[in-house]
Every structure is written in structure tokens, then in C-alpha cells.
Amino acid sequence: MKSTLSPDRTELKERWEEFKAINPKTRIRDAAKQLNTSEAELVATGIGETATLLDGDFRELIKEVGSLGHVMALTRNDHVVHERKGIYEKISFNNHVGLVLGEDIDLRLFLGDWKFGFAVSENDRHSLQFFNSFGEATHKIYLTEKSNKEAYHALVTKYTAADQEVNLIVSPKPEKSAEPETAPDIDVAAFQSEWLALKDTHDFFTLLRKYKLSRKQALRLAPEGYAFRITPASMKPVFDAVSETGLPIMVFVSNPNCIQIHTGTINKIFVMGPWLNIMDPEFNLHLREDAIDEAWIVRKPTEDGIVTGIELIDKEGVMFNQFFGKRKPGIPELKEWPELLERAVTKLN
User: Fold this and answer.
1) Residue 6 burial (CB < 10 Å; 0-12/13-18/19+)?
2) Dihedrals φ, ψ of 94, to 5°?
3) DSSP secondary structure, 191-214, as one string
4) In what order do the strands lie in the sheet with 71-76?
5) pLDDT exceeds cutoff 50 at 1
6) Out of 38, 68, 221, 348, which could bridge 229 as a Cys pair, Cβ 3.0 to 4.6 Å?
7) What is the DSSP letter of 129?
8) Do the beta carbons of residue 32 and residue 42 sit within 8 Å?
9) Which ranges in the chain belong to alpha helices (H)?
């Protein structure tokens, strides 16, 4: 995929510079939508100045990120941004599926569509940024004041692409199809029986596929007492209650290429416009409350007992954020977690 810098990229760079001058606070993901392009293509306009195109096996690159020391891992989707500081530890891959299982940085990586990588340096802020074939960000890694900059520069040098004038070939993203209004004709009793027989929360995805149900459809057909719809406005009271009690929780944010998890307490919470924010020293979350079409408390059986979670779903039926009490396989969930939810949320009939 070798070519010379195209007039199209030059024109996009000019539009991008003009846009930034007028809208200095707009995030690059949002700017890409307004400019009818992709975030990866906007980053690529800085090649030779603020960006360096990376090449090679990104699995091998990720295995070396631990050498950078303390960094900030960022994973997001359209509605929520998850930022967690720490060190990349216990990194492993099985084909294109990767795990990072450190005490602070906890990731599930799906590298099958990690197509583009860049090292980005702007205003003395250094990062590694990865994008899928649609030019959407899959995962980003930012240096902190505690990071090893020499190791970062060595890593960038090692994985710098030989051809820095390559034109990115970004695939058009398929239009999202509307969720069916009616559920398929299924044996509801059999579905509920299998729900009650679950042994692991991960088996829930298999159950949905078996019965060809969307998440919303499945939750509406849940066994009695296993799914409750709550008001989206319940999230602030839940955050406040978690902060006040000091209860450790788990916060999951995912996109098709990465899942990022925070396990621990949360403290500083505030609302700014449509964003509900957690702003702690090592963990930040930015959640667009107006993107929550439906919010549910969901109970799933496991070999360790019932696991209770909050699931946030957007208008297109995509679950984009999950919350649990702190737990690990082999350990029951904290009994204080469902008790807290019972006090904090407002249920809908």
C-alpha cells in the first residue's frame, strides 16, 4: 500500500487546521464526523509533523508497552470515554485476542481489525493511537509525567513504517440497521430456563445468539425478577452512593475492538452539560447521559452466585457501558452492591 501524498490529504489538512482554529475545544472524534471523514484520516494529516505512521505486528508492540511504565489507557465509543492510569502488565495473546491483566490496566483486546497505528506528539503530549478499518479509534495509550520517554521513543523508532507518505484506505462504515420492533417468535419458557441455568456471565452472549434476540428484546423476556428497567437519571445517584460508601465497583467500556475495565472506588463526580463525569487521579469516566435510551439492572446466575449489573443501551440497541460490584471468578459479588442499587435507583414499570 505505497503511494505519494495525495491532493486529497492536503485539502483535508487545510480544512482540519481551519476547523481547529474555529473550534479549538472540539474533540477530534466529533470533528471527524463534522468534516465527513474519519479520525484516523485527520491524524494522518499530521504525518511528518505531529504523527508517525506505525507498522508491524501490533501484538508485539503491545507486549512492549509495559516498558513505558506508568501510562494512561483510553478506550471509548460514541457515548462514553474510559481513562485508566497504570502499567501494562500480564500481557498475553491467543491469535488476535489479547489480555492485559494488571492491577490497574485491565483490557480485552480484539486485534483482528486494528488496521492503523500512529505515534502522536502534540503540545508535548505523546501517545500511541490505534484505529480500525473504518478509521475509528480502537485504543489509545498516553504517556504521563511518570512514563519512560526514552522507552517510548525507542518503541516508536522500532515500529515506524518505512513509507510515511502512504494514503490510508479507510472502509466506509455500514449503516446501522434499526432494531426490530418485535422479538422473534421463540420458546420463552425455554429461553428463561436457560437464563436461570447460566454458569458464567459470558454465556449470556451465546444465549442471545441462540435465540436471535437483541439485548433489549432479551431483557424484556427475562425471567421474573432478573431484569428491571431503571431511569437513566439513576446513574448520578448510583455514582454518588458508590462514592459515599467507598464500595469498589467494576466499570466496563467497550467498542468492537477493545474492552477496558476499571476496578476500584470512585470519588470525584460532577455533571457538565450532557456529561456525567468521574474525575479521580487514576481513573476518569465521561458518560453522555443523553445517549442512554434504556438502562437496566440485570441479574445473571453463575457458579459463584447471582451477578448483578447495570447495562446502558443506546437508541440503536447497542450496550455501551456496564457496571458491577467488584468481583473475581470464584468469589461471590459483594452483597452491598445489589443493596446499594436497591436504594439508589428509580425503577420503571
Assistant:
1) exposed
2) -120, 100
3) HHHHHHT-SSTTHHHHHHHHHT--
4) 51-54, 116-122, 125-131, 137-143, 71-76, 80-86, 283-288, 275-279, 269-272
5) no
6) 348
7) E
8) yes
9) 7-22, 28-34, 39-44, 58-63, 149-159, 188-196, 203-211, 215-220, 235-245, 336-344
Domains and CATH numbers, the chain: 7-93+114-159 (3.40.1570.10), 188-344 (3.40.1570.10)
Please determine, for residue 105, whether its predicted confidence score (pLDDT) is greater than 60: yes
Q: Tens digit of pLDDT for each residue in 275-325?
A: 999 999 999 999 999 999 999 999 999 999 999 999 999 999 999 999 999
CA atoms within 13 Å, Cβ hemisphere of 219: 21
Hey, what long-range contacts does 39-43 have (CB within 8 A, 24 or more apart)? 39/131, 39/135, 39/136, 39/137, 40/116, 40/118, 40/131, 40/135, 40/136, 40/137, 40/168, 40/170, 41/9, 41/12, 41/135, 41/168, 41/170, 42/12, 42/16, 43/118, 43/120, 43/129, 43/131
Q: Which amino acid is at 316?
A: E
Q: How far is residue 88's CA from residue 68's CA, in Å, rounded to a whole number? A: 8
Q: What integer best gives the mean pLDDT of the chain?
A: 94
b/e for 43-62, b at 16 or more Cβ within 10 A? Answer: bbbbbeeebbbbeeebbebb
The one-letter amino acid code at 16 reads W
Alpha-carbon distance of 223 to 218, in angstroms, equals 10
Give residue-wise pLDDT tens across range 178-235: 677 677 899 999 999 999 999 999 999 999 999 999 999 999 999 999 999 999 999 9
